[in-house]
Amino acid sequence: MERAGFSRRAVMAGAAAGLALTSVRALGLSAGPRPLFHISLAQWSLHRTIRSGELDALDFPAFAREQFDIGAVEYVNQFFGDKATDFGYLRELRQRAADAGSKSLLIMIDGVGNLAATDAGERRRAVEGHHPWVAAAAFLGCHAIRVNAGAEAGADRDVMKDHAADSLRRLATYGAPYGISVIVENHGGPSSDGAWLADVMRRADHRGVGTLPDFGNFHVGDGIWYDRYQGMAELMPFAKAVSAKSHEFDASGNEVNTDYRRVLKTVVDAGYTGYIGIEYEGGTHSELDGIRLTQSLLQTVRDELS
């Protein structure tokens, strides 16, 4: 009787496992191990193609899917800067992303105000200027907006930390009911100093505030570069997204400015398992070729690390 009962249970367990595997395959999902990280495409990679009129910004999700088989995208507000409250436009973009089977991850926000300004009124206006983009990101199904920490010429760097942290905390508090995080990229000036931006994160001390470490944006100004590998290590503990910056590749398919194996090991060792967004910014290769080269390198190193 025990053997008969065991056999029935074994058959039922086997059938359930087979059904689960069939369901996974029917959904087009992989039944294999989870990848170390996922790959997305930042809209900035196609900024020349979009600005020339060759690609409509609304077609970006479908283009990412058709050209590169990438099903997760990161938008840039510069390409629809007057559409933050145009929900007809946003509804069309959301539908096109859905039609392409594409996931909208975040919107990169520029030109909305200085979150680290000395003047309190200016900082308040900068925070409020980001509010419509929080709503737009939520409407599109994103998890975050990328903002700039801000800076002011001649201001004390330590004071700027407090101002930036306060603005980020206020903005993240506003974003929390929308399910939107506020993430900061190393994007020039003091924000490209990894230690400085990491300290801003600690001072902000809000679960909705994080970083978007970019492999290449470590130019602090006046021709001075912060060590990119040190900066990545300092920013990864706060990362809610990661940007794979690329400019030029050698004959072996390696990015000539950044050791992708070294930097991706830092990303993986930090426990990050989310999306890494391709952000090709070079001129040696076409935008499409640059994206493909970056995608191939990410996939190759991911396989090696696995």
Structure notes:
The chain is globular, with a radius of gyration of 22 Å. It has a single domain (36-305), classed as Divalent-metal-dependent TIM barrel enzymes (TIM Barrel), CATH 3.20.20. It has 306 residues and is α/β, with parallel strands linked by helices. Helix 9 (260-269) packs across helix 10. It has helices at residues 2-26, 47-51, 60-68, 87-99, 120-140, 157-175, 194-204, 228-235, 260-269, 287-305; strands at 38-42, 72-76, 103-108, 144-147, 181-185, 209-212, 219-221, 224-225, 242-246, 275-280. A hairpin with a 2-residue loop joins strand 7 and strand 8. The strands form 2 sheets. Strands 6-5-4-3-2-1-10-9 form an 8-stranded parallel sheet, covered by helices on one side.
